[in-house]
Amino acid sequence: MLSQVVYQYHEHANESEFERVIVEQHKQIFGNNTIYVDIKKRIGDSIMSIPDGYLIDLTFENEPRLYIIENELSAHDPYKHIGSQLLKFAIGYRASGRKIKEYLLEGISKQVDAISKLGKAVEKSGFRNSDALLDWLIFDKPVAAIVIIDQCSAELENVLGQLTLETDIIEFQTFTDGQSFIYKFEPFNQEVREIEEKESPKTAADQLDTIVVPAQAEGFNNVFIQENSWWSIRISASMIERIKYIAAYQVAPISAITHIAEVARINKYKDTNKYILYFKEPAQEIGPIMLGIGKGLAPQAPRYTKRTKLLSAKTLSDVF
């Protein structure tokens, strides 16, 4: 008979311990198409916060992006600690861009694979050199943030919802059997990474332009159709500017994608870190694109695809 090992939730003693684990696991958390720079330094004058790290996301070849990383414990006050840290950085990071660039170059220069990744990104994105790419990331492209926290809360969502800074949340939990540790988290840009791995050519991620949302009958009829909008959607910061269309998957008993609409604008939804999408015009009926027999295809949460792929699909296996 096989022995069973029971793992229990491990509460980190302090933020330093938590940060150490994040640094150790950063490749699993953020994936191969990223450069993680673990340089925790004060940038600029006293108004600036101290980021725990920086992430250059190269998932989208035509549009890489810079993120600041905040590793936090849920015991911290989300208003006084997490919110103020991000607000200070959002206010002052552009004025301190040269300092940030200096720290990024310093961190990248110490990682052989990071130097290689940045060089390839320059070639694929068409920038003159790495200096031009970093200048664009820092001064032209809006910076975003990733908060990695042991336990997310509605209060934290409320705080982040009031910031203009686009922020992703990664809930990272640790469990132990007393000798070893295991970790539970949803990797950064997980679905986009899965699409990139499955499809060819590998520029598939850059072509994503449609979000598919699961809809109950009441919400579909009252909101998607009558109000020409859909709200309280969690969308990763990397996809906000890429979404041009929204499609509705009506859950059982219909079990099909039946409508699509062009997106006019995307705003934060009330005081949350979620979003509301407004349509340019009433949704158009398509398909229906039926569930089919594929296992696990029915969307349980928003999923991404390409409009051209969606419109030519017969079943959901052709969409995802």
Short description:
With 320 residues, the protein is of the alpha+beta class.
Describe this structure in words.
The protein has 320 residues and is α+β, with helices and mostly antiparallel strands. It folds into two domains: 8-192, Trna Endonuclease, Chain: A, domain 1 (3-Layer(aba) Sandwich); 208-318, Archaeosine Trna-guanine Transglycosylase, Chain: A, domain 4, CATH 2.30.130.30. The protein is built from ten helices and 15 strands. A hairpin with a 7-residue loop joins strand 3 (53-57) and strand 4 (65-72). Helix 3 runs parallel beside helix 7. The radius of gyration is 21 Å and the shape is globular. The protein starts with 7 loop residues before the first strand and ends in a 9-residue tail after the last helix. The model has no long low-confidence stretch (mean pLDDT 89).
